TrEMBL record:
It comes from the Bacteria. This is YfkD-like protein.
Amino acid sequence: MNRRKHSIFLILFVSFIVMALEPSQILAKEKKESFKIPSHVLNISKDNTFPNSTEDEEVIEPSELTKELTDSLDIQIENPVLIKMLNETTLNPSPIAFGYRGMVYLGRWPLNYESLETTINWEYQQVNKNELNNTSGSEPQEINYIQQEQKEIKGALTNKISKPSDVKKMMLLTAKEKTELPLSYQTVIGKNTKKDNTYKVPSDKLAVLQSYAPAVNEKGQVTFGEVYVKLKGSDKSIAVKNVTKQGIGAWIPIQDHVSFSYKLK
């Protein structure tokens, strides 16, 4: 009897663990699926007549000195521009500088970006339209995508913020990491770019093949603070004062991808 009770207890315990894990696993799967490229969106990187340059944002690693200066902070510094500046800073207070005190103001900086919502609009901006009129035809025909004019698609922040260039870099790095998509604030689709994908056009029908550039909509908040370097004798550290947060959003195009919408009239 005791062995039976023990078995029942084990089954209940394992079931509880599985039930506790399932919601997080489902959430992770749904999150991954939300960034999956649908079948009506095609990669044109090899077909694009305009060679887009890949916008690879450099991930700046903090130097040993920068780590030493920021380790004691309650606020995380992720701004690559600020980290690079701190890496290039040379501080060598004299070991015999007893009583020496100093504070150097480095300015007010965006320190980090926290992503709160990331979504994709697969029809962010219309870039092309191909039509085929087969209303008077007796046989089915085919239509395929051919870019009529060169189109430049630009992303941008959705509201004003201090040091927008730094903020855009942090948001781009975050969005790339979350979506694993080729993102860039600017992408171009060259004239006469084409794909081999074809669509059937029955007789007595007008076919319209519309093309769109997709983009990621990134929303979150930026933490700002006044950054100081504190020197006290041979000791050195970073201090952050007057910390504030500001909400921000951005549209970031998906480079070299086109979304298609096909309709018959």
